[in-house]
Amino acid sequence: MALPVSLRTSVIPQELELVACEQLVEIVPLVAMERTAFISGAYGPLRPPSKCKVPIWMAANLKMKKKCHIVPPEWLNVEYLQDRLTRETTEPQFSEMPFRFAEIAKVLLDVASDDFQNSDRLRSLLKDIREARQAKSREGLSKLDHSDLNLPNLCAIEINEIRPFFVRAMGVLTQLTKDPAGQQMTY
Amino acid sequence: MSDQVLTSTANCAGYTCLAFARDGSRIYTGGSDSLVRIWKTDLGTDEEPDLSVDAAEGITTLAVGKDIWLSGSADNLVRQYAKGETQDPITITSAKAVPIRCVAVDPKSQRVAVTSDEMEVKVISLEDTTDMKVLSGHRKAVRRVTWHPSGSLMTTCGADGRIIVWNMSGDEPKEEKVIEGVIPEVSDPESPEFSHDCSAIWHTSGLHFFVATKGHEIVTISRNTWTKASTYSDDAATGAITSLAMSRNGLYLASATKGGIFIWSTQNRRMLFRFNGALNAMVTQLAFSPSQNMLAWTDVDGVLTRWPNPIPATAPDPVTITNASASATVPVKRAATPTLFDKDEDAKINADVDLDDDMGIDLDNDDWILDDLGDGMIDDEKKWSGKDGIREMVSVTKAQPAFQPGSTPMENKKRYLAYNMVGVIEVTDQDTHHIVNVEFHDRSARKSYHFTDHFKYDLASLGERGALYACQPENDHPAHVMYKPYGLWASQGEWTYELPKGTKVLGIAAGGPPPTKSLRMQSDADIQGNGNAVIATSDGELIFLTGGGVERCCLSLQGDYVSMVAGPEWVFIVHRDGSTTMDGSQNLTGRLIKFDDYCLLQKDTLPIAKGQTLKWIGISEEGAPVIYDSSGVLNALPRFRLPFAATWTRVLNTNALARREGKQESYWPVGVSGETFMCLILKGRQEHPEFPRPLIQELPLQLPFKRTETKDGQLEEHLARETMLLDIIRDGLGDELGTDEIARRELALDKEIIQLIQSACKADKLARAIDLVKLLHHTASFEMAIKVAQFYHLLGLREKIEALRDDREDGDDRLEKAREKRRDRERDFVPVAPPRQLAFTESSSSSMPKPFSDFRPPPMIHRPGLERAGPSGTNASTIPTAAKSTQQSIATSESTSSWDLDDSQFQDEEYVANPTPDGKRKRSEEREVTINTGAAESKRRAVGSEAAPQARANPFARKPGADTNARPNPFSSRPADTLMNQKSLHKSESFFTKVDAAEADKSKRPLKGKAKEKKESGGRQTTLFGLPPPAPPSISTTSSSDKKTPGPGRPKKKQPTPAPSVAEETQQSTVIDSQATEIIDTGDSQATEMDVNMGDETQRTEVVDGNEDEPIEWPESPAAGESGLPEVEVGA
């Protein structure tokens, strides 16, 4: 691989963002378009004012050309996130979030903040949730053992974040537990 | 006492409070000028009231006890005075530097409750003011306190939105109940809401109290359950309730809103009377006089208003305590009702009142008023008092005013003039002029614009090809109408049309065919024209103009104009024939008037329930008129093309929506498109959308079928709905037989019908199955139904289906029959065909597919090196054109027998011509699996025997539309081909029945060289059912030819054969297939036909038993073992 070492262990957030952009989001188009074939599939037809489901990359593209409004996903509003934040801070386990919420929220808030009510509040809530979850995964570090790691509801970007370290740490732990003799030898 | 309303300026502007002395002789008023005035009720307005000047800051509350009165003020003191005295107050208590909010003396005049901006409530004994109890429970300031008539309960209403009921009977007050979420949370004392009365007003019976909710309703809360028992609402009385008062005997409840003062009967919860004068300011406190028939109130202007005789003499007065006042309950009891009018009522009144009660339940939301309009009451005095013997209640139904669909009233200097599927016209009031902003949903088709409007246009209509504006006459300029077509240079196409002086514009509508190309491009006039404009004037005229400004026609309006909307071909006008009816109906009639000849197309009464009003009218995407009424029901007129024959159909009842449960919301219609109802969702009691523009929501249409919880019910509902939509299209067909689109949708429907037939068979409901079979569209679908019947061993049913099928086949073609029907009608009335597109515009569109709308898989690259091995002769047709193969499949599957023929052809080709190993490799993989795998033999055979004939008869196998809907990957199939071939779908029926020559031609084709094609179609068939067709070894060829009298000429005669023979045919092919597998299995080619037949039969029943009861493996089966051919999704 021609990638630098730091990038080989894990995908970078931008790549995750790209992956997440394949998910569908509802838009209210402002232009009419026939059903159109793309590499990933055919989307449309766009018939204003009817809503239509298109991949996020397409929605973002149209939005930047002011050719659509993005309909916020049902989890991307203040009430929902507030609720999740309280759960996140009060309950020990990770609360249930869409798998790629962080990436999707970032993309949508970046391109279409005017389609969201109270987008600043949304941003700060997302940041709070992220920090709360990060704290939890850091806490999980102490429970790390060699064999398995069970973290339900961990999201794509978080998995990605902890992967390089956890994988390596678990590797070391495996060595330590499985092969104490060998370990003696190596040191 | 005269009936004149007395107004007197009591205090200076600001919050003003009011209290009647317990004997009713005096009125105390206090206001922000910190003065309390004492008015004697027996004196007129010119009296100079006594003055109490002790308070240092504004008086916030007044209360009376026996021979005393108390004032609470913002200087945090509560002062007690002797009755009528203005001097020498006793300071009872004080709050810690915060204003007193409410003082209430208990009914026995022993204790006084004091609330302030502190969170505690103080209850002080009047005898010994040091005896004080402090009640804490609220989290914010306590705004109001009231006593239960018995004095044992006390209710406090806090700024935290909670009502706390205290039990005061014991030594220590106890919190009895906390009621949350009823009253609004208002904590800012400066906000106008803070001065709204939120107190819990106990009914004299003590069984319940009244309170104004945050939803601007008056609700009763029952003492037993502490839950909302009933609601008082009326369309006239909307908006925030600023004050409430209970009459002394509990018969009447008075409420004040911004719009007026209303008196309700506590017995039937209906609004009875209304104050006629205008209210200049917000009413802060209302009170019934305890001794007279009088209602008094104070407002924020500091004015005291006294309304003598609010209750007409004919109704029981509000003071005298009757048995009714004690027994009045929330859910109206019959026993209590009669006293509403007189104690010596007769049976007639009794009946009338009962009627009212019944109606009152569902008339929460109505615009019509029975007897409760104040003017109705007072003007019709003679009705009430003139004749003593007969008292009758007169129904006065308020006629709904004319409205423009999609417009809202001016609120906060903004309004919508039009809001429909084309776009939005928003108006901002700039005092001297308006700014009109026009935005379109589809910005690619039309360009948004805005302009400054000096005429203050108050009516507008957004048509497909232009916007129409109208203004009313004002000062020097008469009313005029302006039409602005889209897509023309600046004001090039604009025209105005002036009306004579004094004539008003009641309504306008712009219509026209949808544009064929983008109107953003500014160009010369379109050949299609600019649509049509219709104007309804107060002179009773209906003026038609073309989009170019040519005045065409001037019709007369029948009755009062209500609303209109224009479609591409006609205008839909709603007017009132005569007047509203006595029983509450608006009596509206809708007419469809065509643009081409200004003749009537439809005329029917609108289906609006009594007491409801028309809220919106529009035109669906398919062109059908749609109406929405205040009860939340959407109706459509789908068969509008049949002159005078269309009926209104309920397409959606928003009250029954699942999403509405537990929510208070209403739907503001924007349009109807296909199967969706586009609307704006309004929360709470909001009546119009606000700014900024909310997103349009889509609700699926749902016919109000009652059995929708079952799957069958849902299918039935969808079937009916889809049929309705199809009917709209079919009616517009004219001379054509059908379109590809219709055929595709019919096919999808057939599929659903088959599912319904299956479940009917399963439940042994044969009559139901027959009904469903009759609904099938395509003849080929009958075969499927036969299969289903056969599977369930319903032989009788099968025969009946076959008879039905034959009947369908023998009779005229269904589509031709439909056309014949249209023509029949034509003899009487010409059904309205949709407008023809001019050839001029059509020519511009090329036949080339657009760059990105080609969903076919990429063309296969011819790579001779990767070519499958095979005899050189057949290799030439390795890449059959898509069209060719599809056509082939259609042709072959046209009749079962032609299929057999193909099979045998194929078998000949496959096994006779290519016996070499090369030839083996040529076979598709699943074919080999069939032959070689022995493990799943029995199952395969059974399924094969089941599936093979099914495959031939399968009506979906070749239908073009079957795979376009549910295809997961649009790249992998060929809609273009199917579209191309859909034409032949209809023709093929007649083609086969009539033109024998073509069939014969086909069958005479040399077998040689067709192998590839056969294989192609065979492979296709296979994939359709996910099951390999039975692999026919060479022996089976002979056996089949033995039994079947093979021959190229046979199939053409097969098509019209009567049922038994077809059945026999199917049976035969079954036998053949099973035999074929049997032969592979055992190698015993000598098995007699009888044996095989029996064996097969048993095998099949076994499988049937084990196979649950799914005769048709709908979606799951095809995918198995398939690759590369995506047409598998038959049943998905």
Automatic annotation (TrEMBL), chain A:
It is found in: Nucleus. GO terms for biological process: chromosome segregation; DNA replication; double-strand break repair via break-induced replication. It holds the Pfam family Sld5. Residues 13-71 form the DNA replication complex GINS protein PSF2 N-terminal domain. The keyword Nucleus applies. Keywords: Chromosome partition, DNA replication, Nucleus. Residues 75-173 form the GINS subunit domain. InterPro entries: GINS_A, GINS_bundle-like_dom_sf, GINS_Psf2, PSF2_N. One of its GO terms (cellular component) is GINS complex. This is DNA replication complex GINS protein PSF2. It comes from Cristinia sonorae. It comes from the Eukaryota. Belongs to the GINS2/PSF2 family. Component of the GINS complex.
From TrEMBL, chain B:
PROSITE patterns: WD_REPEATS_1, WD_REPEATS_2, WD_REPEATS_REGION. One of its GO terms (cellular component) is nuclear replication fork. SMART domains: WD40. Signal peptide: none annotated. Pfam families: Ctf4_C (PF20946), Mcl1_mid (PF12341), WD40_WDHD1_1st (PF24817). The keyword ATP-binding does not apply. Residues 814-829 have a biased composition (Basic and acidic residues). It comes from the Eukaryota. Its main location: nucleus. This is Minichromosome loss protein Mcl1 middle region domain-containing protein.
